Amino acid sequence: MKPDRKDLAPGLSISRILTGLWQVADQEKDGVTLDPVAGAKALADYSREGFDTFDMADHYGTSELITGELLRSWQGGDRPRAFTKWCPEPGPMTPEIVRAGVQERLDRLGVKRVDLLQFHWWTFEHPAWLDALHEMKRLRQEGLIGEIGVTNFDAAHLDLALAEGIPLVSNQVSFSLIDRRAAGHLAEICKKHGVHLLAYGTLCGGFLSERWIGKPEPEAVKDWSGSKYLRFIQAAGGWNGYQGILKAADEIARKHGVSISNVATRWVLEHAHVAGVIVGARLGENQHRADNLRLFQFELDADDHDRLDQAFAATRMIPGDCGDEYRQPPFLTASGDLSHHLSEMPSAMQAVTDPDNPDRARVFSGSLWEPIAGYCRALRDGDKIVVSGTTATHGVDRTVALDDAGAQTTYILDKIAASVRALGGDPKDILRTRMYLRGEEDIEAAARAHGLRFTTNPPANTTFLVGNLIGDFRVEIEAEAVVSRKRD
C-alpha cells in the first residue's frame, strides 16, 4: 500500500502525504550539517514507499542540497518531486533579484526547473511582493519554474495575487485541530479559484499524539517546532482546551483502531481544498511511514466530527488569518518574534520631516500624480496622521487588479497601513476611513475586504457611491489616525 495521490496541477501528481524537511534545520542548528549522501538515501527509502513528494525551503538548513543529491542519484521510475520555497527579505524585487533567488534554488537542487516554487513575503505593507510574483510568472514561462505556489498567504492577499493574474496552484499554511483558520475565508477563496492548500503543522510539532494525554504543560520545549506549536496551543485557549481536543481525538482513534496523529491528520485531509498534508521527517531518526499509511484506511463520520466540534467549542480561534503569525503580534514562532528570520522589517516609505515645523512629517509613495498635483501620501502633525485619497496604483502609474474592487481595497489598505507606520503610527491607530466606490457592483466586495482588514480595532467608516473615479480605479480610500500613547 502507498499513499493516495492528487493532481496539484496538470502533470504534477503528488503524494497526499508530503514529507517536510524543515527538521533538517533543527538537526543542524548546532552547526554540524547532515551527510548529504546518507540524507539522500533516507529520502530514497521514503520515495520507494510512495512518499515521493518533498517540501523544503531556502532556510531549512541543507535540505535542498540533500534533495539535490537524491535527484542526481535516483534510478528507475518517475523521479521524486521537489518543492521548495523562496523567502526573501522585504525590499525591491527587481528582475535581477528574483532571477538570482530562483537560480539559487535551481543550483542547490541541481535541476533545470523547480517542480513547485512557493513564495513567502514577510509584510504586505511592502508592495514589492507583486513585482516578485510577476517576475516568477515570467520565469515560469521561460521554463525555470514548473508551477508557482505561495506560503502563509491570507485569504485577502491570495485573492489579490490571483486577481493580478498570477497562476497560483497552491498556498501552504498551518492547518490543524488546534489552528483551524484555513477552514474559514481561505477555503472560500480556494474554492472560488481552484487553488489547493498544502497543510503543515497538522501534528502541532508532535503535540497531537498519545504521549501528551493527561500530561502537565511543559515550561519549555527544546526543538524549534515544539516551541512554536506550544505557543499555538496557548493562543488557542491554553492547555486545558488542548487536552480536551486530545481526549476527543483519542476516543475517535480508539474507535477506528488508529493513532491520534492519524485522526488529527485525517481531519485536515478531508477538507475539500486540501491537496496534501506535510509531515516532517528527522532524517536518520524515527520513521512513521507505516502509521501514516493508515490515514487512507478510514474516514471520519458524522459522530466523529460532532465530538471534535464539542472539543473545539472549549477553545478559541488563533488570532487573525492564515500567516498573520509571521506578520504581526502575537508572533507564534519558535522565538515569539521574527528574530530567527529577520533583523528588521524595512518600510516601503520614508518619513520626511518638515524643515519649517519639526512636529510635522510627510511620506510619499512615488505615484505619478503626487509631484504633479502637489500632495503627499500622508502627513503627520503632532499625534494626528491624515492619509490622502489612495488608489490601487503600483509603482508610478500601474493599476493593480483591474475591475476587482475587493482586491483593490486590499492593496489600498496595505498602502495606507504602510503610510501610517512610516510616520510612527500603527494601523490600529486608524480611527476613520472613507471609501469612494465607482459602482454599486463594487459595494459588497470592497466592504468585505475592508471588514477582513479590520476584524479587530475597526475604525469609523463612511462609504460613498460616486459613480465615477479618475482613471480606471474601482475604489479610493482616505484615512485618519491618531497615534496612541498606550501600546499593548
TrEMBL record:
CDD domains: AKR_unchar, YjgF_YER057c_UK114_like_6
Entries under InterPro entries matching the protein: AKR, NAD(P)_OxRdtase_dom_sf, NADP_OxRdtase_dom, RutC-like_sf, YjgF/YER057c/UK114
UniProt cross-references to SUPFAM superfamilies, sorted A to Z: NAD(P)-linked oxidoreductase, YjgF-like
UniProt cross-references to Gene3D superfamilies, sorted A to Z: NADP-dependent oxidoreductase domain, RutC-like
Residue span, NADP-dependent oxidoreductase domain: 17-311
Protein origin, superkingdom: Bacteria
PANTHER family with a match to the protein in the record: NADP-DEPENDENT OXIDOREDUCTASE DOMAIN-CONTAINING PROTEIN, PROTEIN TAS
The name this protein goes by in its record: Aldo/keto reductase
Species the sequence originates in: Hoeflea alexandrii
Organism lineage: Bacteria, Pseudomonadati, Pseudomonadota, Alphaproteobacteria, Hyphomicrobiales
